[in-house]
UniProtKB/TrEMBL annotation:
Species of origin: Metabacillus endolithicus
Catalysed reaction equations from the record: (R)-pantoate + beta-alanine + ATP = (R)-pantothenate + AMP + diphosphate + H(+)
Enzyme Commission code(s) on record: 6.3.2.1
Keyword Ligase: yes
PANTHER family reported in the protein's UniProt record: CYTIDYLATE KINASE/PANTOATE-BETA-ALANINE LIGASE, PANTOATE--BETA-ALANINE LIGASE
Pathway where it operates: Cofactor biosynthesis; (R)-pantothenate biosynthesis; (R)-pantothenate from (R)-pantoate and beta-alanine: step 1/1
Active site residues per record: 37 (proton donor)
One GO molecular-function entry: pantoate-beta-alanine ligase activity
Function in brief: Catalyzes the condensation of pantoate with beta-alanine in an ATP-dependent reaction via a pantoyl-adenylate intermediate.
Family: Belongs to the pantothenate synthetase family.
UniProt: ATP binding residues: 30-37, 147-150, 176, 184-187
Protein name per Swiss-Prot or TrEMBL: Pantothenate synthetase
Amino acid sequence: MNIVSTIQELRKEIRSFKQGNLTIGFVPTMGYLHEGHLKLLEEARKENDIVVLSIFVNPLQFGPNEDFDSYPRNAERDQKLAEQAGVDLIFTPPVTEMYPDEPAYTVIVKKRIDVLCGRSRKGHFDGVATVLTKLFNMVQPDKAYFGMKDAQQVAVIDGLISEFNFPIHLVAVPTIREEDGLAKSSRNVNLNDRERIEATALYKSLCEAKELILKGERSKQKVIELVTSIISTNTSGKIDYVEILNYPKLEEIEVLHGNIIIAVAVKFTNARLIDNITIEV
């Protein structure tokens, strides 16, 4: 496994891979790797000759109330996990390498952002799209891997790849779950014992909604009412949103048809949890 921190070094490695006609799978991250990241690396390892991992805490996607400096970092641990996962190349640039000056050009995302978590994170996806545009150009991967845990991010990246004609295949990897169905997240440790049990209601509500739709229900409002009722009855958390949209365009619909996403966000005492499922109706 090789580790590089400059764009020049990265491009030298990528040229070597391309000259050898090797396929490249790319997993962009902000580090502090967890099981979700490792699943992405596992899928990339299966499907490509070369696996490239980037670790870069991107300041452009942090809002004014989000502390860039306190974002967790552990380079030594990340490198060990990456090596165990079969990563060939890690790109770990400092901020000064990615943004030597204040950016004169950024990507502005106009669609797929004013819903779900994006509604309360203005500018977040502009930062994501900007850094990925840079990374896609540097790494030139054949495939890029992202987790469906953050389905809105996957939708935005799908639009980015399509809009800018990147010759990249987006691989959306299913959410990793605990045995009881709870979506794995670093935030789960902030749940108390009672809330940890209650939190399973999020995925249960989504599964019940899916069953209702498969039985023929096509009213968005009735499905939302079911999900809301199950979460409200079985948890002490405060519902942030329950939304049903088409996917991946994330547009409003009233009658359920085509590919849709049912997404929820619930605030517990010290943790805000999100979950979703997609269904072809």
